[in-house]
Amino acid sequence: HVQLVESGGGSVQAEGSLRLACAASGYKYSDYCLAWFRQAPGKEREGVAVIDIEDTPTYAESVKGRFTISQDLAKNFLYLQMDSLKPEDTAMYYCATGQYYGLLPNGMDYWGKGTQVTVS
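RE: above sequence
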């Protein structure tokens, strides 16, 4: 079965950096895309970045130029390098996978439990 386990969250000051990782297993990478989503308290879950098997990324406008999504298919890891962090980036960050390439949560089939990022 598909398992997604996030790590790397924490507390950081504004303009700082964090690198999130997601250990993915049990999915067919040739058919699925990997993505990062986030959800702040009282807000809807939103797409942050998605990457396909050819390493083509798409980013939400709010993180373009600051976040970088990457993957290591040999080791089954997804990453999110987050630079120039802002307080509004504070949220629970989730790794997700699905056959849909995009930033809509409904397009994803499997989710991790999340890792908290707090920017002050």
